[in-house]
Amino acid sequence: DYHQAMQDPETVVIDVRNHYESTLGHFAPPPGGAQLVDPHMRNSIEFPKWLAQPETQAKLHNKKVLMYCTGGIRCERATALLNQMTTVANKSDAITNKGNGEKEPAFQPKGVYHMRGGIERYVKTFPQGGYWKGKNYLFDKRAEQCPSQKTPDLVEQEVTSQCCLCAQKWTSYRGKFKCHYDYCGVPVIVCDACRPKGLTHPDQLTCELCQKGDTQVLEAAVPDLVGLKRQAESLVADPETKKAKKTNNESPKEDNNGDQQVIADRIFVARLPLTVTKTKLEQLFQSENQEKQETPDSIIQVIHWLTDRATGGFYGSCMVQVSSPQVAERILAQGAAMRLDKKRIKVSAVRRRGNESLTEAAWPPKNYQEREYPPVGHFQRI
């Protein structure tokens, strides 16, 4: 499991949280165990910048990579991003020739894992703390979380944060004090004695990263995440995905009866966010058909998440069989305006190949499994 994996010296543990969160607490793998890496981020937008840097990828190459965050959401998305980057790096021309003539991937971790439930779940599973040191920064009214069976004095000893004004050790964020630099603005720690000064002289509030002049990640180029995702999809997409995309870009063909070869009750859906679920897609389709009295209770009859054949990872596409051709027509008519979790998605018709009949087209596919969520693939939850 994740706890045991931190004992492996061939493992890198990445704190996917912001640096100001890490100052209150972080994992400390045992001596001789995994290496802890803090990307020194001011916000999560900087993580793709850090991950795209050559020195970062060199550090992760041929290593088992563990990621963690507060509740498990950020690190789950981070594993998906890392998987996309490795896919593009290894299936492009960026391949290193070894001395024996063999080839090895330019950038390939031995495995990518994230902590299910994040730090919150870990400290509940290990009430004495395990490898966790300090406090878990929280964004709700609790403000922080500590292992239940670890004494407050020991927790305080483990925290190394300090007041940004007087440098006195201080272990809590209180008040809405923020770094005064316009490009930063992250929360800063101000002790009780310095609170009056912090209120009257906010221009003197400076976070730890800005005090050290640490702007490497901040100033790094932003990778093209949309282009990266599309390139990864094109490189490793399931043949069924490629077939659907190719068919949708071709002029409609006609069968022996002169009709277009469209499977009337089936839809190809692409550009889906990683947060998609069957329920969310059902609700979206229902909203597009709600004015029609004949709309059934359940529009989606079959949903087949399309994945990478090598890793089983989901890349944002699926095939959906809906309740009727009429429902499919209404969804396709609204396709350009449809959004899921604030992201515009793409829907298109599914067409048959050549003279293939409806009975000849295997549906659902042999590898079909009824799922509420798309499969995660080899970046496992542990």
From TrEMBL:
Q: Where is this region: Disordered?
A: 237-258
Q: Which PANTHER family match?
A: RHODANESE DOMAIN-CONTAINING PROTEIN, THIOSULFATE SULFURTRANSFERASE/RHODANESE-LIKE DOMAIN-CONTAINING PROTEIN 2
Protein name from the UniProt record: Rhodanese domain-containing protein
**Is RNA-binding a UniProt keyword of this protein?**
yes
A UniProt-annotated Pfam family: Rhodanese_C
Q: Which organism is it from?
A: Entomoneis paludosa
UniProt feature, compositional bias: Basic and acidic residues:
239-256
The record's annotation in PROSITE patterns points to: RHODANESE_3 (PS50206), RRM (PS50102)
Q: Which residues form the RRM domain?
A: 265-352
Q: Which CDD domains match?
A: RRM_SF
Q: Which GO terms describe its molecular function?
A: RNA binding
Give the highest taxon in the source lineage.
Eukaryota
The chain positions of domain Rhodanese read 7-131
InterPro entries from the entry? Nucleotide-bd_a/b_plait_sf, RBD_domain_sf, Rhodanese-like_dom, Rhodanese-like_dom_sf, Rhodanese_C, RRM_dom, TrhO
- Print the keywords alphabetically: RNA-binding
